[in-house]
Amino acid sequence: MQTSHKISNQWYPKLPIPEPEVPNVLEEYEEKVPPIGTLDYIYYFSKVEGHLPTPIEVSITGSIPYKCPELKWYNFDIYPHKIKITNTGYTVLLGAKWRTERPYLEGGPLLEKHVLSQIHFHWGPNFMKGSEHSVDKRLHPGEMQYGVKADERLECVIEGFPRIIEAKTNTRIGPYPMSRIMPMFYEDYFLYWGTLTTVKGENHVIRWIVPRVILYASTEQMEQFRKLWDPWDNPNMGNFRPLQDVADRHVFFINAHWNQYNSLLPIPRLPEKSISVLSPAYQANPWMLPPQNRVSIPNEAAENNKDNNNNKENKENKGNK
């Protein structure tokens, strides 16, 4: 599953973010190229390279180092009201519903808020292929990672697979916050533009974000994906697309930080702390939080009140002096 976030074989995260449909004929863009270093410069290439096919090979070699603001993850620790996974016959689709505000991304290379829509998975017939993108000319078992031990983040999704063996079936899991299911990052990722053709023949310009951080999946976990049926009641042995030519497109390497000997970063030995934060709406209206997320709020509110009272007392003391 890549995010899509080595031990021997792997799969890593991707965040496809749709943009408007690609025109049938690529028009001539005579507008002035924005200054390098701006977000407008990145967006400019959606117009001149958005028609190019995907997925592609990404690596540090040949990429363009570029600085952006930090990518901000909002509400990914908030528990949804419910989570449903569906075997569409072609992929596993994970969708969730929140009673109030959904998780979303801001900052980084984005000019506007991008709300989480759904998560889906890619896999292959064996441990030599299955991911859509390749990194450093290496394919992986899925658009995630392969390891000796099962990954708990993936396990909370796979536990529902026995109930969706047949195509066009669904079941509920969890609920769990999205931070438990997908890795998060604010630096060290690749970005490029390209088109995605849907099964309905619709073309969309996509901003692909491929982070260096990775997850892993055990042999047993990968086998669970291959047990799911396709629309013809056969095991679905793979749903990845073939690699396309990079051509002369710009692949940006955003906010490089860690070692750059390999394009992918090693799996952390210990679980990392979530980088998700509460949105302004939740901070201003704690009542919107689901019960699972309300435990820490009273303590935080008490601390804030304590600080406010201390500040008030200090001001009064200074006034008395």
Automatic annotation (TrEMBL):
Region (Disordered), start-end ranges: 293-321
Pfam families linked to this entry: Carb_anhydrase (PF00194)
Which terms in the Gene Ontology molecular function aspect does this entry carry?
carbonate dehydratase activity; zinc ion binding
Regions of biased composition (Basic and acidic residues) lie at 303-321
Q: Where is the Alpha-carbonic anhydrase domain?
A: 27-255
Q: Which domain of life is it from?
A: Eukaryota
PROSITE patterns attached here? ALPHA_CA_2 (PS51144)
An example of a Gene Ontology cellular component annotation for this protein is: cytoplasm
InterPro entries, per database record: CA_dom, CA_dom_sf, Carbonic_anhydrase_a-class
Assigned protein family: Belongs to the alpha-carbonic anhydrase family.
Q: What is this protein called?
A: Putative carbonic anhydrase 3
Q: What species does this protein belong to?
A: Papilio machaon
